[in-house]
Amino acid sequence: MLTNSRLVSCGWITSAAFVFSMIKAVGGDCAGAVSLFEDGALPPKPAMYSHKTLADDHLAKIIKELPENPFMADQAGIRLSLAGAQEKLPVSLKDNKIGISMNGAPSSHILKTPIKDLHGTVENETFCMMLARRMGLLVPDVKIIKINEIPLYIIDRYDRKIENGQIIRLIQEDFCQALNVNAQLKYTPTLDVCFSLIRNESAVQIKDTKRFLQLVVFNGLIGNSDAHAKNISFIHGENGTILAPFYDLLSTYVYPYAKKMAMKVGGGRHFQFLEPKHFERFSKDTLIKYKIVKETIVTMADKIVGEAKNTTEEFFDLYGKSPVLNEINDVIKNSSKEKLKFFS
Length: 344
What we know:
CATH topology of the largest domain: Phosphatidylinositol 3-kinase Catalytic Subunit, Chain A, Domain 5
Distance between the termini: 53 Å
């Protein structure tokens, strides 16, 4: 059962009547393993699942109408839901053809559209995710497809797996939900709280603590200032709870309004200007040995410029040139140079 507190942590904080009308409209394919149905309605069996392939013109129309018709909620038989402010759509992908889940079928991918008034967001996120993989971070596969010349970001859902040819939903929980924090307060949890949560919940706490530390440094080096608690999740499985693959990695620093980090590092919010004293305090706050923090920063800062260059070449081969990649590379060069100046 979805409790009132969990509804609040998902960001649904209005009247009960509105909450359940929302669930009725979009609760069929939610994040994780949650699907919601009206009283008396049984979940469809996998044999009933289907996916409706969309022609390019139809998909382009849906994308255009997403601001007024999020998740296609006005269409019979379609009940889709995802958190976040950016326009997106749960989809299936087969042979580069986009499909929509029908009859309770799980989606396998998430489609994101370009963010209005910000240049190159699709290219930006795709590049940063590709770079994260080269840097050794666990991330889902991503790609760009174009529909009527509109670039679309496509990412494999980390809360799904394929088993015997079927898409299986996995239980996931973002850090706001795990901490019982309202989604509208997603910038409230601090890094020390997040590290403590990992120690308390993860079945592989040492490994996941290391992974999360690498994420913090990576976000700093690429200039991702929007790394908040809903952009980190757990997967709950047969072998216990572990950190989910990382997602929503974007260099926000290339845009004029996004310079301060969502989570302070040792009291500082501008990664490029953080000094050893900030990381010493970060070490004390998070109970991670300063030697490990320093070694992680040096290793990643020393590696990332070369990997960014390689990722840029790979991206250009796949998708053609994009000016925003040059801006991201400049951010990375400046960030890594400043960190190596202090620690090398």
